[in-house]
Design goal:
Rossmann fold; six-stranded mixed sheet; 6 strands; about 20% strand; globular
Length: about 190
Amino acid sequence: MSHLTSGAAPLISEEYRRLQAELHCDPDYGRASKHYAPLVAEVIRSKGFTELLDYGAGKGRLGEELRNLLPGPLKIYHYDPAIPKWSQRPVPRTCVACIDVLEHIEPEYLTNVLDDLKRVVLDTGVFTVHTGPAGKFLKDGRNAHLIQKPVSWWLALLLERFELCAFYRTSGADGFWVVVEAKGENGKSD
């Protein structure tokens, strides 16, 4: 399986990949990306991007909604290790959305996932993180949000890898979204 054995650092365990695949069978699971589509569309529009990588795409709802919001041609690429047709490690893209994903990552793989995001963001990333518990649970009884940490904890990890362009708390202050730019070998500065 490419997401586990491609020679790069692992991003997910096989057991958790199976649990995520089961969760994605629930029609109510993975709706957050649709809610954030107008924000992602505004970033795409303002920067004139013609491509987007939906990192942790789930059912692909973000892409569906973006096609309704954006009149111009937009090539959408998907990556999600729990969805077989989208499980190949993605190539870098100018714009990357990672919506309602990071809090679901197994803690022991979070550094690898953040480093992979750094690898694939050539210009701009739009990321959301929920900092509290989810309303859903995994079959093994764990809360679907495996990582429940404060904003400051998340920002420290993100700012190690990206330049911060915008930061906003979500309504209810139970999470946040950021717009970031690449830095280092992918970006403008180090």
